[in-house]
Amino acid sequence: MTVNELRTEMRDEFQDVRTEMRAEFEDVRTEMRTEFQDVRTEMRTEFEAVRTEMRTEFKAVRTEMRTEFKNVRTEISDLRIELMTAMSAEGETTRRHFDVVAEQFRDYTKVLADGIARNTERLDDHEKRITFVEGSG
């Protein structure tokens, strides 16, 4: 075999190897595309499942919140009614107390007014006597 024949044979062999490598690389690329597509499909499916689960959970949380807010509003309303009732009762008690105090004040004022009236009468009597004594003297 001559050098040229050897070169030709080597070129042909390298060409065959290159062709085989290209074919293998193309097979690997095709396989990778298929695998990536499968992974993307799985991811989409899983993400959609997670989204659905999240929507369901958020809906449940919203329902719980509405129920709890409704309960709180009811409790606040009940407390308001209870406070209004207690304040009304306390107002009535205070009013009765002040009515009693006012009545006692009227009684004390009447006693005081009567005492002042008697003292005024006595002073008037003393004034008349003094005026009489001074006038006759």
Describe this structure in words.
By secondary structure, this protein is an all-alpha fold. The protein has one domain. It is built from one helix and no strands. The protein is rod-shaped and about 185 Å long. The mean pLDDT is 92.
**How large is the share of residues in beta strands?**
under 5%
Largest sheet: none
- From the alpha carbons, calculate the radius of gyration and give it in angstroms: 57 Å
**Number of separate structural domains:** 1
Give the helix/strand class.
Answer: mainly alpha
Q: Could you state the oligomeric state of the chains shown?
A: single chain
Write the layout of secondary structure elements.
Layout: H1 3-136
In short:
The protein is an all-alpha fold and 137 residues long. 98% of the residues lie in helices and 0% in strands. It has one domain.
Question: Which keywords apply here?
Answer:
single chain, 137 residues, mainly alpha, 1 helix
